[in-house]
Amino acid sequence: MWFAGKIIVLLKEKIKKSKDYKHIRVNVILGPFTHVTPESLRSAFMLISEKEGFGNVRLNIQKNKAKIKCRKCKKSVEISAPVAGCPLCGADDFDISDAEEFSVQSIEITQG
Ligand SMILES: [Zn+2]
């Protein structure tokens, strides 16, 4: 799975600098519109990380909400699924933010 592979790439970059670690915590954010569930991401990641020789890596996965800002009623609303119009006034003139599918917020390495 692409998301899991992306985490591994980031981990490899980090680990290059500090090979001696006790455990690693990866803070991941899943966007509201992705079909990837935390469970499927976790199991895909476990598979790849084992193959790549990473141990003691914990994924902390958070599901994010997107925000729409309506240009008509000027209000901001959080949404967790795609919408065709503003939930408040129904206008289809709005901007969406925070809708990224996936992002790695931080990687915390505990030295051994
Ligand atoms: Zn509106």
Task: Describe it.
- The protein contains 2 helices and 6 strands; from the N terminus they run αβαβββββ.
- By secondary structure, the protein is α+β, with helices and mostly antiparallel strands.
- The mean pLDDT is 91.
- Helix content is 27%, strand content 36%.
- Strands 2-1-6 form a 3-stranded mixed beta sheet, covered by helices on one side.
- The radius of gyration is 18 Å and the shape is elongated.
- The structure holds zinc ion (ZN).
State the helical fraction.
Answer: 25-40%
How large a portion of the residues is in β-strands, by DSSP E? Answer: 35-45%
Helix tally equals: 2
Any idea what the CATH architecture is?
A: 2-Layer Sandwich
Hetero groups in this structure are:
zinc ion
CATH topology: hypothetical protein PF0899 fold
Largest sheet: 3 strands, mixed
Please tell me what the overall shape is. elongated
N-to-C SSE string, H for helix and E for strand: HEHEEEEE
What are the segments in which pLDDT stays under 50 over at least 5 consecutive residues?
none
| Terminus-to-terminus distance | 30 Å
Structural category is alpha+beta
